[in-house]
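User: I'm writing a tutorial on reading structure tokens. Could you give me a worked example: one chain, its sequence, then its tokens, then a sentence or two explaining what the tokens reveal?
Assistant: Sure. Here is the example chain.
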Amino acid sequence: TAVSWFLARRVQQSVASVARSAVAIGAGNYRTRVPDRQLGTEFTQLSRAINQLAQRLDSQDDIRKRMLSDLAHELRTPLTTIGAITDAIEDGIRAPDSQTFDVVRTATTRLQRLAEDIATVSSADEHQMPLHPATITVNELLIATYEEAADLFTDAKVTLGIVTTAARVHVHVDAERMSQVLLNLLTNALRHSSPGQRVVVKADTAPAHAVRISVVDCGDGIPPQHLPHIFDRFYRTDSSRTRDAGGSGIGLTIARSIVEDHGGTLLAESLGAGHGATFTITLPTTTRRHIHRSTPGTEFSVAFKHRTRRGAADALQRDQATN
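And here are its predicted structure tokens:
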């Protein structure tokens, strides 16, 4: 009958439309969408599923293109520096002295760090990063990271403090990887702080047998529109400044992956530009018996005045915090 023919024709056209869309998506045209021809629940669900897949692929493709563009920029900057200095030496404009070699060495180090970061973030994305966990106290973790970061803060004339009420709490972590996370958060906070400002690491116990470690700064802050993307690869709130400061743009991505591989979370908070930022790590503690009642907070601070790099370790002061 005419009705049967009409319905069969519509079904045939819809199937053909789905097939064409699938072929187009398979060919890389991720902005193709399947129209909903109102042929019933099954066809509607199929159309929506294909459209959602195309949308996800389109988003991933945009991320990939942006990542490759940023990666090209990251590679181009130190390579341009090395090339320019080499040309200047060959032309006799610049002497091959220690200062010149220092510039080349810095650019080379940046390239090496970028290569290592790319390899690390690839492993982190696939959750294949090797971990060697051991049971340590929060205090041991914080002090190890503090000692590594102290000179950086001293040179920048930014005070670094640690306040903890969870010093004796035990966590089962890869100490080297977790120190890497904390050092990344600290250098990120330092990058966005000005001389005379203060960065504080706070540690306390959290519900559900967990410990919180927060890195708090009062620097540039993060605008609200950037917060959801702060852990995306190569994402920057201020690309030019971050690039000048030497950031690869994937440190926070790596940090979050490491924390998640430990069964924890890493979150970012900020009230907006100019209001500082807080990055909070939450980690499970080893056992309930290791969770102690809060003790008087302990603070470690760097006195940066009249300090030298060699004497940085000796100037570590341990005081009772006023909580």
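What the tokens reveal: The chain is about 50% helix and 15% strand. The helical segments are 2-26, 41-90, 98-125, 138-156, 175-191, 239-244, 251-261.
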